[in-house]
Design brief:
Elements: E1 10-14, E2 21-25, E3 43-47, H1 52-57, E4 63-68, H2 73-88, E5 94-99, H3 104-109, E6 117-122, E7 125-131, H4 136-149
Parallel strand pairs: 3-5, 4-5
Antiparallel strand pairs: 1-2, 4-6, 6-7
Helix pairs in contact: 2-4
Amino acid sequence: MAQASTSSAAKIVVCPNCGKKNRLRSAGRGVAQCGSCHLPLPWLVEASESDFGLIVEQSSLPVLVEFWAPWCGPCRMVAPALEAASVKHAGRLKVVKVNVDQSPNVAQRFGAMSIPLMVLVRDGSELDRLVGAVPAPQLERWLSDRLVAA
């Protein structure tokens, strides 16, 4: 497994396995791994119009892009399920949040007419999409089925 790395913004992520803090870059290829126990880390980051290509389209992992807005109640309701998906599928999936108010061109490019909108992207191409704040089990089923096919 390759260590994820590029020169994009970084955030601190606590390893769910050993509890160590790790610096995780938003963009990168390969799998984000804990520097201590070397197990995959959950990769949940934000992207904007300026770095969307680096973070999403150049990812070697499938990417679940959530189009959302801070004023959107259903978006806040689905957030815990997306975080859980990033933990469950660590090493196999990157979860990226795109604020439609701050990145309207990306939202328009993907036709984000309703939010929350989840779009599964692989190698820069859309595989599938899911609209609305679906319950966590439904999101997990949808995602698991598509990750197997990806």
